[in-house]
Design a protein that fits this description.
The complex is a heterodimer of chains A (about 280) and B (about 350).
Chain A: H1 3-15, H2 17-39, H3 71-107, H4 109-123, H5 127-138, H6 142-166, H7 172-179, H8 184-220, H9 232-240, H10 249-276
Helix pairs in contact in A: 1-2, 1-10, 2-3, 2-10, 3-4, 3-6, 3-8, 4-6, 5-6, 6-8, 8-9, 8-10, 9-10
Chain B: H1 2-35, H2 40-44, H3 52-61, H4 68-80, H5 94-129, H6 134-146, H7 151-165, H8 190-197, H9 200-237, H10 240-247, H11 252-289, H12 295-304, H13 308-336, H14 338-342
Classes of the chains: A mainly alpha (about 280), B mainly alpha (about 350).
């Protein structure tokens, strides 16, 4: 980023405090993910049945669950796992999607058509169902939640990178790079990709929220994460059994954590898009 | 009628171009069956203690001893004849199970889509008309929050509020409470079957049972629909033809509905197709929350008990529904915008 971009970013943040708040929220989430297990007041795994199903109080800010575990501590500790799943899934699809999409957009021809067909087939599935099926096929483990979430994200990144590279393949500086003897691979990786990365980073931020929801949904239905591991989706699933007897905190607080995390990533993505492309402002 | 015919021809062409995707889906579900853990022959044997010979015979019967391409052809042949295998869980053919449960899922999804469209389009239109007002900001806030709350959380919180706190909603399990008897099955859609049977009380019971799950699912998709309606109404309200309509003194209603909304509806139709696909996925979560006896909860139960034929059948069914809905969206788009079917 040049000085002008930073000044522009600062100007936008002043005019759009929401983005600044969202950025702060994301930083806070990362801090919680890193230091969470050290700062929690209670052990997130050890049960204490005498304190089971207590509503929120000063001692237990978010109440306790059926085994007397402190919901607040479990929420804090869960942040790391939820973020790691979402970030690694989106990271994988970002890198693979950018490279595959860029080569398709640059070369066109048979490679482009084959990959395009493949993307079409993937898009012909309801994506959550596809993720379910993949976790079933690969085995009910956390790594496979990451892989499944990465795969269902992949078509969007391929399409995005393909379109962005395709419109640039014959512009002046690409011709110049080719004329100065750069190989095609080098043109794509060293010249075209860096140019489409900022736009794709925005896409990534918007996607992280979606990835968090998907991963939480998968663990809610019992795929991937296993109890007693603290994770937001599975915490909602465990609390669901007690909702019709009025134990709202077991669902509401993990739900709130999910909502805030997704909201921060979405708002940050929107704000970043404004910074990169002022025409898209709504 | 000429334009209608043209739309049909164009729709037919769209259908043909969606066939490769459908074929890809078939191959995928086949591969899914191949890579799923566990040997199907062992599953179909009398039990875990079945002898090696028995398993070998079953493997031969199921064609699992043949090379993979042959198996793919056999699979395609089976699917073509409507044979999706047998569920271990229920002991019935998967097609029968799916046929029994599909109406429940479709009734839920269509009701939710209806609720979502009926509330999202007016919200988006009003937000665009009163751009910058409190209503507009309210709608935008709702849209921003709506996409962030997972369906399973909003569903459970709705149960808490309407079942536990207010007591207005019935026990959130299944399509019908235990006191009401099922109507004679004609369409499988309870809302229609009760009307056909002339059973008002039954209809009301089923309606009460359907409301919360449908609202849950609708809440999740109102946000994208309202957002696109608002954005596309803003464009269309700012266009020359609306200004012209205003300048010739047409009534406000006519300008908004006939001119602005009709032109703004195209992107909404496209998004509605995408939204429907997310709803098919969200079905899994909503059906689990409300113990709704639909195809998604059936597939989920099967998945968790390693009964894979239903999962495979479900994935195939969902993908086919999805292709069909996309085709429908294309046709609607062609009717709403005659230019689209020319190209």
């Amino acid at each position: 980023m040049t000085g002008t971009t930073l000044r522009h970013a600062a100007w936008i943040l002043r005019g759009n405090p929401l983005t600044a708040i969202a950025a702060a929220g994301v930083v806070l989430l990362i801090l919680i993910a890193v230091f969470g297990p050290q700062i929690v007041p209670y052990d997130p795994i050890v049960s204490n049945v005498s304190q089971a199903l207590m509503p929120p109080s000063a001692a237990h800010l978010a109440g306790t669950d059926q085994l007397g575990r402190d919901t607040f501590s479990r929420l804090i500790v869960a942040t790391r796992l939820d973020l790691v799943i979402a970030v690694s899934a989106v990271g994988i699809s970002f890198v693979l999607g950018a490279v595959i999409g860029a080569f398709c957009g640059y070369s066109g021809g048979r490679l482009d058509r084959t990959v395009g067909r493949f993307v079409d087939v993937m898009m012909a599935f309801p994506l959550f169902v596809l993720a379910m099926a993949m976790v079933a096929a690969l085995g009910n483990r956390v790594e496979n939640i990451v892989i499944a979430t990465a795969v269902i994200n992949l078509p969007f990144y391929i399409r995005f990178a393909r379109a962005e590279v395709n419109i640039r393949r014959n512009v002046g500086w690409v011709e110049a790079a080719r004329a100065s003897g750069e190989s095609h691979i080098s043109v794509v990786l060293r010249f075209l990709l860096p140019n489409v990365l900022p736009a794709m980073a925005v896409q990534m931020s918007l996607n992280l929220g979606w990835a968090i929801l998907n991963a939480a949904g998968l663990s809610f239905i019992g795929l991937g994460v296993k109890p007693p591991t603290p994770e937001w989706g599975i915490m909602v699933a465990e609390g669901a059994r007690f909702i019709s007897t009025g134990r709202w905190w077991l669902v509401a607080f993990p739900g709130l954590a999910l909502m805030l995390a997704v909201l921060c990533f979405n708002l940050l993505g929107d704000g970043m898009r404004d910074i990169l492309d002022p025409r898209m402002r709504t | 009628m000429k334009s209608f015919g043209a739309t049909m021809i164009w729709a037919g062409r769209r259908f043909l171009s969606s066939l490769p995707a459908l074929f890809g889906v078939l191959v995928f579900t086949f591969l899914l069956m191949r890579v799923l853990p566990g040997d199907p022959a062992v599953f179909f044997a009398s039990g875990p203690n079945a002898g090696k010979e028995e398993i070998a015979i079953i493997r031969k019967q199921m064609g699992l001893d043949k090379p993979v391409p042959t198996q793919l052809l056999l699979y395609l042949y089976d699917v073509g004849r409507g044979n999706l295998g047998r569920s271990i869980m229920t002991g019935q053919p998967v097609t029968t199970d799916l046929r029994d449960r599909l109406p429940a899922s479709l009734e839920l999804t269509f009701t939710a889509l209806l609720i979502a469209l009926v509330s999202a389009i007016p919200l988006g239109v009003v937000a665009a008309l009163k751009s910058g007002s409190v209503i507009d900001h309210g709608v935008r806030l709702f849209c921003a929050l709506g996409v962030c709350v997972p369906t399973f959380v909003s569903g459970l919180l709705l149960i808490y509020v309407f079942y536990y706190l207010l007591g207005v909603a019935p026990d959130p399990t299944g399509r019908l409470d235990v006191f009401t008897s099922l109507p004679p099955p004609r369409t499988g859609f309870l809302m229609i079957d009760f009307v056909l049977a002339g059973d008002i009380d039954g209809w009301w019971a089923a309606f009460r049972q359907l409301t919360l799950p449908a609202v849950t699912m609708a809440l999740f998709v109102i946000a994208p629909l309202a957002r696109i309606t608002r954005a596309s109404m803003l464009v269309s309200l700012g266009s020359d033809f609306v200004r012209t309509a205003r300048s010739v003194g047409l009534s406000w209603w006519r300008i908004v509905v006939t001119y602005a909304l009709r032109n703004a509806i195209l992107p909404v139709i496209t998004i509605a197709g995408i939204v429907f696909s997310t709803m098919l996925g969200a079905n899994v979560l909503v059906e689990k929350v409300y113990s709704w006896p639909g195809v998604a909860s059936y597939a989920l139960d099967a998945l968790l008990s390693s009964d894979y034929a239903p999962v495979q059948g479900f994935v195939l069914l969902m993908a086919s529904v999805f292709v069909a809905v996309n085709l429908l969206v294309d046709i609607l788009y062609g009717i709403a915008d005659p230019r689209a079917s020319m190209g």
